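Each lists chain and fold; for instance:
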Amino acid sequence: MPSLRYIDSLETETHVYIATERVKPLPTILSDWSSSTFIPNPQSRAQGKLEWLAWGIKSLATGLAFINAPPLSQHHALLAPGGVGSVWITEALEWRLGGFEVLTGMEDGQGVLWGAGGLIGKEVGEVSSPEVRKSGWSALRE
């Protein structure tokens, strides 16, 4: 799964601006789907949405498997509350993965996940592995 395509950037004294390809967050696309006119037949639209979602979820799983294995890094942005906002959709309805601001290398002792994983949200505990629930995020390094 490709990540957002970088186009250009600009750095000022106080900010860094990064331009990427034009995308929309997945929740926006899902809410707009029912009112869409690019598939006029409601039954075809519903079937098309299911197929598109299945393809997108497979793309996400493939991308995450590549990022997380062999265990060189951990990408946990999708676990955060509203984590589905880390999934972006291009104008061609291709899925892109974002949320790399919380990507943590397994060898990075100062990685954001090890120090701030607990701040992601208490809901994460419900979907975390038993090791994380028992010993905290650093258990993933072992």
